[in-house]
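Team,

Forwarding the record for the chain on the shared tracking sheet. I've put the sequence and predicted structure together so nobody has to dig through attachments.
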Amino acid sequence: MDISSISNSIGSLSLNTNNKIAQTDDKSFQNMLNNAISDVNNQQVKGYDSMQGIATGKVTNLQEAVQRIEEADLSMRLALEVKNKALNAYKEIMRIQV
């Protein structure tokens, strides 16, 4: 039974995964966090613009405006939950005795 074709396939797979890992290492945690915060901020701005549009009557599609407001609310809630989980994890790590 010839397994050379299988080992060649596995060898090419391991090379591809190494390249993928090297590509993902380019982004630091700080950059990912900054991007996430920027996304939340952009959604908040869109939500506030939609609220202002509803209040002034400039909105033509009320459903879209309400959807933007809800998306902004959900993104802020998600960001707060992620922050809370990170703080709880940090506190748990600090309680560990060395």
